[in-house]
Amino acid sequence: MKFKNKINLTSLILIITLLLISTGVMAQEFPVTITDSLGEEVKLEEKPTRIISLSPNMTEVLFAVGAGDNVVGVTKFADYPEEATKVDIIGSITEPNIEKIITMEPDVVIASSVNKMETIERLKELNVKVVGFSANSVDKAIENIKTVAELTGNQEKGEEIVTKMYIKIGEITNLVEDHLKNNEKRKVFYEIWNDPLYTAGKNNFIDDLISMAGGINIGRLAEGQWPQYNLEKLLIENPEVYISTPHSADMEVSKEKIKNREQYQSISAIKNDRVYLIDQNILNRPSPRLVKGLALMTKAVFPDLTEEVNEIMKD
């Protein structure tokens, strides 16, 4: 389901409701077979009761769909929801403890694109069932949520989450589309890291969020999904909105520090006080909180829509 055109919310709700009825959500049974983002077919004979997550975003998804009680291992910085902080840590995203994972005897390990392929391959060599997920768009992130829910025996909860996400996103994108009838899109730069400068390029969910919010992602001009960006090009492109996170540098970032950087004073976003800091865990993790990320992005691109966006998000 794409968000390229204006959505009739009543029709959307009706379609999703009919889909839920037709797919028999209430009577999910095992075995379950899915195809993951690596193109691998994965079959679970029974509902998994011992799950290990190799990334914070997949940990969020697992807890959101109702599989939190079955999560026995997570990586460092898996800090949402709070219950996830009480789960055993099996290492970092890039350096998980393979030996510890094996001894925990998981039914399935959930990986994402931030994990090293060598980690995934090594676990498979040791006969550990691994499912890999990646999200190069908001649509794909939502599809992954639905798949994780199905894989863990929580399809009904997954459908509920997905439905709410589609509705909220539809309301926000419709609001932006109406606003753009009388307003120009804004050039946006999203800073992932500041020295050297890295941004979100094309074909990723952050680029998608910027577009949905009515922005033009100037990071698309660089090569790759997460490219290094040249300062000279940043000055030439002259973004009207500059978005960063509190932790896009070794030392905590602030709006004042960004505004006081050498040569930044000529940038439109700096001159017009259009610098925004957004929690990186909300924007950078493809999880159900992407809806909140879209809301924050929209308010940064078009501050005059703040009241309407807050009204949409209050439930």
Count of all domains: 2
Number of helices: 13
Structural class: alpha/beta
- Tell me, briefly, the overall form: globular
Low-confidence spans: 21-25
Could you tell me the number of beta strands?
Answer: 11
CATH architectural name of the largest domain:
3-Layer(aba) Sandwich
Major sheet: 5 strands, mixed
Radius of gyration (Å): 20 Å
- Written as H for each helix and E for each strand, in order along the chain, the element string is HEEEHEHEHEHHEEHEHEHHEHHH
Report the mean per-residue pLDDT as an integer: 91
Description:
The structure is a single chain. By secondary structure, the chain is an alpha/beta fold. It folds into two domains: 152 residues, Rossmann fold (3-Layer(aba) Sandwich); 130 residues, Nitrogenase molybdenum iron protein domain (Rossmann fold, 3-Layer(aba) Sandwich), CATH 3.40.50.1980. The protein is 40% helix and 14% strand. The protein is built from 13 helices and eleven strands. The strands form three sheets. Strands 7, 8, 9, 10 and 11 form a five-stranded mixed sheet that branches. Strands 4-3-5-6 form a four-stranded parallel sheet, sandwiched between helices. It has a two-stranded antiparallel ribbon with strand order 1-2. It is globular, with a radius of gyration of 20 Å. It starts with 8 loop residues before the first helix and ends with a helix. The relative contact order is 0.12.
